[in-house]
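Hi D.,

Good news: the full-assembly prediction came through. Inputs first.
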Amino acid sequence: MSKLLVVGTMAYDAIETPFGKTEKTLGGSASYIALAASHFDIEIGIVSVVGDDFEQKHLDLMTDRQVNLSGVEIVKGGKTFFWSGRYHNDMNTRDTLVTDLNTLADFSPLVPESFQEAEILLLGNLHPAIQISVLDQMKKRPNLVILDTMNYWIENTPGQLETVLGRIDVLAINDEEARQLSGEYSLVKAAEAILAKGPKYVIIKKGEHGALLFQKDQVFFAPALPLEEVSDPTGAGDTFAGGLAGYIAASRHISFDRLKNALIHGANLASFCVEKLGTERMETLTSEEAKKRLQSFKDLTHFTVELD
Amino acid sequence: MSKLLVVGTMAYDAIETPFGKTEKTLGGSASYIALAASHFDIEIGIVSVVGDDFEQKHLDLMTDRQVNLSGVEIVKGGKTFFWSGRYHNDMNTRDTLVTDLNTLADFSPLVPESFQEAEILLLGNLHPAIQISVLDQMKKRPNLVILDTMNYWIENTPGQLETVLGRIDVLAINDEEARQLSGEYSLVKAAEAILAKGPKYVIIKKGEHGALLFQKDQVFFAPALPLEEVSDPTGAGDTFAGGLAGYIAASRHISFDRLKNALIHGANLASFCVEKLGTERMETLTSEEAKKRLQSFKDLTHFTVELD
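Then the structure:
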């Protein structure tokens, strides 16, 4: 069975949207990624850090899904990373109210031996130095390294970020970040500029407007499913990344066509994530429910009548 | 051969974008619609009004493409509708600098007898009273009536707009207008609310983010082609509408599947429209060039590997 190693945050979030509010929900990129990737027949390992306030039920939630937590450091007397945000009425923009790094401030990732030869490595949005440290700990170059990053690292650690970009295969970032990283407004030009920095593939996430996959001279678009209601977009991007990494790990073969499907699987899982606050929906989602909805993505974009 | 009757504006535009500027270019919804629809094997008639400053070369441009102008009133001593706008750096937002209605202010549409039994009627964005007057002049109910409107009519003539909505088949508007008309933020809910007002189909245009087609319980998404450069988005929405109306008129059969293809044809033609300022690109575009690009739309969204 293929192994997917996920490096990212495990957190507690407080979220407020026009439709609801939660004072404390499981959050963090690694949590969402692992919950999504657990729908595929693979072994998942997380490298992260939490405080000893991290609840047993949330550790159990992961181990119940066969997620290996031997790479998750639990800091005695430490507090888990905490994030709080409030969404505006359009659900596309939000204010960050609190970011308490807590134990994350001194995070020094340690890849467990059992995952040092993982086939797929997903480096969540963290300091590029941490991402490099994980790459350095891999005994075998993974078949695919997927990277997420954000405007903060683009602005503050551009040199280290360039180094990471030279060592990965897929960069998955949102449209504004792609523009910032490349200095190009057109997403086609932005993708070209990013491909020139090293990655073989670039995935540009556009939230409710879907996601684009670029390879040299090729482009694919995965739509977001039009939904009646979005309760909370938190974690949708990580769920998307987790779904695509999980699918690719399970398919044991990497190509542009496989990545197309991976994006669709990611978009499919993300369409569930936003249905409830925090990780709530992803905690109850069954793989049967997820499979059933996949057909909607074909119906949404496929046309069968001849065009000419 | 099927007939498509187009009611809309013929205008002169002055356009400024970050990439170029023109003091006077052919504009108006009917001009863009007819240029796009002329790529299909149909008869096109325009109902519009211009001043006698409207240049012979622009009349010739239309008649050279077999567009019937007997419904275009040329007002002696009158001036043609003039619009001027400046696009911001993101190319998605613009300021209107001048709107001189001129002859359009007293426009009283007269449908030529040869088009009173047209199979397809496209009512461009105009006062709902004008749209109703055209509907009343049709001797036979067209097989498909497509309507465009805008925020101004939603705000200022809601009663008359409701009347028109009860007499058409397809409403094609942009996302903000759909939200305003329905009072719903979710586009899925907005479409449901609009379908309840009468139209059988709703098309929601999202500019560079593509367009959604809704029928009761069905949805289709046509992407916009990711482009290296957009020179000028003016007329893209009208070109999209003209392409879809032209395709439907030529196909002589109306169904959800046919409309899917119609949206793809519309998006394909719109991808050319934005390549140059004003109508410039649409004036030179050949049907062979248009057909060739259609394949990109399949490549962009179709995935072939099994999903489960």
